[in-house]
Amino acid sequence: MRRIGVLTSGGDAPGMNAAIRAVVRAGIYNNIQVMGIARGYAGLINGEIKEMDLASVGDIIHRGGTILKTARCEEFKTDAGREKALNVLEVFGIDGLVVIGGDGSFMGAQKLSHAGIKTIGIPGTIDNDLSYTDYTIGFDTAVNTVLDAVSKIRDTSTSHERISIIEVMGRHCGDIALYAGLAGGAESVLVPEEEFDIDDICKKLIQGKARRKLHHIIMLAEGTGDALELKKEIFNKTGIEARVTVLGYIQRGGSPTAFDRILASRMGARAVELLMEEKSGRVIGIKKNELIDMDIDEALSANREFHKEMYELTKILSI
What we know:
By secondary structure, the protein is an alpha/beta fold. The chain has 2 domains: about 5-140 and about 255-300, 3-Layer(aba) Sandwich (Rossmann fold), CATH 3.40.50; about 140-250, Phosphofructokinase domain (Rossmann fold, 3-Layer(aba) Sandwich). Helix content is about 45%, strand content about 20%. The protein has a 7-stranded mixed β-sheet with strand order 3-2-1-4-5-10-11, sandwiched between helices. Strands 7-8-6-9 form a 4-stranded parallel β-sheet, with helices on both faces. Helix 5 packs across helix 6 and helix 6 runs parallel beside helix 11 (about 310-315). Catalyzes the phosphorylation of D-fructose 6-phosphate to fructose 1,6-bisphosphate by ATP, the first committing step of glycolysis. This is ATP-dependent 6-phosphofructokinase. It catalyses: beta-D-fructose 6-phosphate + ATP = beta-D-fructose 1,6-bisphosphate + ADP + H(+). GO terms for molecular function: 6-phosphofructokinase activity. Its main location: cytoplasm.
């Protein structure tokens, strides 16, 4: 393994820069030339590739986003687009590729692996929606970003004795809402994995008002339903006015937590090790705080298990 490439693809996540840094420095330590590919698969097709050295990844471990930038690429989903990418890899003499991203990025890595390119995937997505690993890079930071917002919203919500609906990211996976809801003391946590009863929510609101509760936080994952519709339903049933806060892209930005920096560093270095071992079509994860690697086909087909016990705990502690 003489020369490897690294790219970030899909939605950005805090900790991606720490992973890039680890790949570059671990590669150089092992006398491997590392090429940075800008703008994901689109940059790969267009040949946006340059050599990275120690200085190019200096002072980035604490930065959010990705210095390599990221982009969606419809062209890469076509046979012709992937053929262009393979030609570019050959022209630049890249022997192996590290892909940092979510399930869509991994599908691209899977295609390249099947075409004969040695590829290793690192999970970088705030949604924590990759089933084979306990945590993805960026998830912990996103949860802490939400928690910070909850604390601020609770202050004003308490001052005005209001109900607050806080919508967080998570179209198919409710982990951000679940973890932030539990840690932030939300009275209701609504996730796409579990159906909810609007009457149960309204009952909690009415009971809270009766005992002079000063605030009420409803944590809503975006894939569960529309926050404004929920607000309307609550008002129609109870006459209680709620305020909606949609956190949006604020959850993707910011300096990564210590957990995400360490996880990204460990995974980036491990990706280089796997390429040196001539491994391909593997993705790195973490289980019980130990790094694992798994066949990418197996990882993408793994069934996701929702943390039902934690979800039930949010109900118990919100009474």
